[in-house]
Amino acid sequence: MHDHIWAGIGARKWKIVQMALLVLLFSGCSPASDAQVGVSSNGISASQSSSHWDGPSAVQRQEQFLSSASMDPDLPLFSCEFRLNGGGSDEIWCEDISQVLFASPWTTEMTFSTLPVFRNPLQYFEGSITINPDVEAMKEYLGEIAQRLGIEEQALSIQEEKAEYGFGQGVRRLLTERVTASIPYGTVSVSMDMSAQIHFEPAIPIPQELNTDYYAPLQQVSELAEYMLQHHSGYFGMETPTIGIYGGRVNTYMQKSYGFYIYESGDDPLEQLLGYSFDLGRFSFTADGGISRVFLSKMDDLPKLGDYPALTVEQAKEALLQGQYSDGPSTLPKEENIHQVQLVYRTAASPYFVPCYVFYVLIEKEQRRWDLVPDEAQEYVPYYVPAVDHRYILDLPTR
Fold first, then answer.
1. Domain with 321 in it
2. 32 lies in a domain?
3. Is residue 48 domain-resident?
4. Is the pTM for the entire model greater than 0.85?
């Protein structure tokens, strides 16, 4: 409903509405506190205490915004549900982080004047339960996948798998978790978030000389990826499928592992970044080397909030050192311990998909949180810094 209202307001009317909202926001009617909303001329606020605010008053900040030539009044401010989880599964153990491969096509040589922020069409309860699955879109996507497999949609018998969820105060709803259909050699399923799986039964054989072992060396993983790109990338329905190889991390026994994605590439760096972020596929293999599953995602045609001024890597690094980051440990990093950076879109359960720089910070041995990290390994934890002008973000924490 809100998206239809959003789309129906013309640019001139929306500008008037937005200015009115800003008056309310900066006059203290917003749930965001003064300490959470900072304004600075270069888009990176100075370090501020969460319990004390020595900066401009609400009225002054409103005037700064309205008189600032560097901010676009047609770009909406947005609020995100950022998390502070300490890194979790994104943590890296490795011999040397310079040898770790990231599948993303982004490099530090790529620079952007603007980056798009997208609205997540899904809505969530308590940060995880999808409350508005688009069942018809799920069925349509399942039909698309079946056609890639040579199966007419009319021949499918699509079933809905439902589960009951509680929403507090005794409210319970029956929601469709996924839709599934049997095919002659397995099943196809599409989940609430428009991720999909093709499950082959039996597994599809591939040449025995290809190594699908989890700890296969990099060269053999590259050979496997090339074969899958040439012979099995049609499942994904991509125009320009491309390989992205990742790995070089170690486990507690110092064993390295590698893997690969297939993603939609493009003619320019931004298209490549968006293809990797929102149109990504991968394979799962059986112990004897057959293709057991294909994992797909469909996040195209996302509603775009706008193209926002992009931060450079150096601007984002300075923001991190000042405590402006959306996710990571609560302790500020030392500059000398920052050793790697990536540009990603986080596609978790959040109202908006925001580009972020991920800075990997070395954890000194005496500060390690896990006893399982091998002594000879390095441990890195990620810090996420939104890669667009922070003045447009309402609730970016400052440590």
1. 88-118+306-389
2. yes
3. yes
4. no
